Amino acid sequence: MSRVQSIRTNFKVAKVDRGLGLVLGWAIVSKVDGQPYFDLQGDYIPEDVMLSASADFMENSRSAKAMHAGPDRGSILFAFPMTEEIAKAFEFDTGGKFGLMVAAKFDEGVLAKFDEGTYTGFSIGGWYGDYEELED
Q: What pTM was estimated for this model as a whole?
């Protein structure tokens, strides 16, 4: 038996660097001011789940689509998990926000939409839950 949820998180872009062709922002927010963060769909992604999922994503995928549709239009070049524990270890002040920070590099068409303000946020999608092996 498995309890699997589809998740899709949406966050404002923090910065578009046209020179490097990068879009930077939070792909996942787990906590804000020490409290669990629930996105617009009501999903909460705990820090431990975010850390595990982001390690798997960066090792095995890193693909990026435009608005979750069509073929790959870029990739995630950088990702840094910022948990409360990691922030404390590095002595970072995150302003109370914790989660996964990313930099995505998109093709020119998608990058232009970020640059002109048509796209103001980006998101990642995936699944999480408890899995139980089923015997044949």
A: 0.78
**Low pLDDT (below 50) residues in the chain:** 1-9, 131-134, 136
Residues pairing with 82 in the sheet: 99
Structure-block tokens of residue 99: 């989660």
Q: Annotate 49-106 with DSSP letters as a single string.
A: HHHHHHHHHHHHT-EEEETTEEEEEEEEEEEEEE-HHHHHHHT---TTEEEEEEEEEE
Residues 99, 87: contact at Cβ < 8 Å? no
Q: Are the C-beta atoms of residues 114 and 107 closer than 8 Å to each other?
A: no
What are the two backbone dihedrals, phi and then psi, of residue 53, each rounded to the nearest 5 degrees? -65, -40
